[in-house]
Design brief:
This protein has helices at residues 4-20, 31-34, 47-50, 55-64, 76-79, 89-100, 131-148, 174-179, 181-194, 213-225, 246-258, 284-289, 291-294, 303-322, 366-375, and strands at 40-45, 67-70, 104-111, 155-160, 199-204, 232-235, 238-240, 263-271, 327-332. By secondary structure, it is an alpha/beta fold. Bound molecules: (3S,4R)-3-hydroxy-2-oxopiperidin-4-yl beta-D-xylopyranoside.
């Protein structure tokens, strides 16, 4: 039973929200309103948000964003941890959260070489699956996962990161070594069959590298030629302070727009930390020895860097504003710096500051800088 005082409180809150607008965390404008009519503004969420464990972050998400992406809960290792066993407990809560708050719900991701268990590629006796067996595994996974959320998850990152920086299909990974390009086409086909109304995306990083773009364009063209609609290419955009330049970001969007392919900025963040050239496969002990250089802001971000980050975001959003007709959605990869994946990638245990809210969930100067950039005509 709802008590009268509870009802009065609810009515009071509803009226005050109508009068002053939803709380926007120190801002008088919300991101989604500032981007209204141009693109959706999304954010990747973890269980702190979709299980309601952090009320402030729930408020941030529902007041500033109109789309959500699942940071991890729909990846293969989470939803399908063992042969024949699915676990949708987290994903169901994620989708329920998005539906409750009327957000455009994204699914991420169906075919990727990370966060996919080894068993996927092997028979019970340990021998590698052949092409027919692996295609069957892929198709049945996609049919099951996409089918479960049919009509509720509105857009899917079907294939993630199939092309390397030189523009080659990643045949060093089992998906593509065993299936070749057909795997990509069949992944899209299965997703389309499971939910014909869902938007399907190809998602990739570093597409500002000119060598990588033609390969992605050709791959998407071949999926489309097979009669399967690809709604957009997802540009991950895990950026650095130094680059890519706003010009390179704009050129990337133009390159896809010229081929009648809208883009989505699917995983936006800007790392303020140095990224050593040789981090891949680097010896962790050697990196630890360079901790002061590689983790320069363990306590707080200096104001100069904070301001530079705000300017970097403003410059990026000036590009997005000027390319709005080609961009359908811009999604930040996380709510606050406390949980950004960049604290642990590419080097574990650092302190990065790439997002719009700080470790205490307070808005950073980057937020009003973006709002200002979006306010210009
Ligand atoms: C990251 C998550 O943010 C981390 O929590 C997880 O440990 C690893 O994956 N590209 C992608 C995302 O497509 O799925 C990745 O997300 C970040 C890079």
């Amino acid at each position: 039973m709802i008590s009268l005082s509870r009802l009065r409180l609810t009515a009071f809150l509803a009226t005050s929200l109508l009068c002053v607008g939803a709380p926007t965390f120190g801002q008088d404008r919300s991101l989604k309103d500032a981007a209204q009519g141009r693109f959706l503004i999304g954010v990747a969420i973890n269980e702190k948000v979709f299980l309601g464990k952090n009320a402030t972050e729930v408020g941030i998400v529902t007041s500033h964003f109109n789309s959500v992406s699942p940071e991890n809960c729909l990846k293969w290792e989470t939803v399908h941890p063992e042969p024949g066993r699915y676990d949708f407990s987290a994903a169901d809560r994620y989708v329920a959260f998005g539906a409750e708050h009327r957000l455009f719900i994204i699914g991420h991701t169906l075919m990727w070489h990370y966060q996919t268990p080894d068993w996927v590629f092997k028979n019970p006796d340990g021998t590698p699956k052949n092409k027919a067996q692996l295609l069957e595994e892929l198709r049945s996974h996609i049919q099951t996962v996409v089918g479960r959320y049919k009509g509720r998850i509105r857009g899917w990152d079907v294939v993630n990161e199939a092309i390397d920086d030189e523009g080659r299909l990643r045949t060093d990974k089992p998906w593509y070594r065993i299936l070749g390009e057909e795997g990509v086409i069949e992944a899209f086909r299965a997703a389309h069959e499971a939910d014909p109304a869902a938007e399907l995306y190809y998602n990739e990083f570093s597409l500002w590298l000119p060598a990588k773009r033609p390969a992605v364009l050709q791959l998407v063209a071949r999926v489309r030629a097979a009669g399967i609609p690809v709604a957009a290419v997802g540009l991950q955009e895990h950026y650095m302070m130094a680059g890519p330049s706003p010009e390179e970001v704009g050129e990337t969007i133009d390159a896809f727009a010229r081929e009648h392919l809208p883009v989505m900025i699917t995983e936006l963040d800007v790392s303020v930390l140095p990224r050593p050239e040789n981090y891949a496969g680097a010896d962790l002990a050697a990196l630890q020895a360079r901790k002061a250089e590689l983790d320069p802001y363990p306590v707080a971000l200096p104001e100069t860097v904070e301001r530079a980050l705000a300017e970097r975001y403003a410059a990026l959003f000036a590009v997005y504003r000027n390319h709005a007709s080609a961009i359908k959605r811009i999604t930040f990869w996380g709510v606050s710096d406390a949980d950004t994946w960049l604290n642990n990638w590419p080097i574990p245990g650092r302190h990065d500051y790439p997002l719009l809210f700080d470790r205490g969930d307070h808005a950073k100067p980057a937020l009003p800088a973006i709002l200002d950039a979006l306010a210009r005509p």
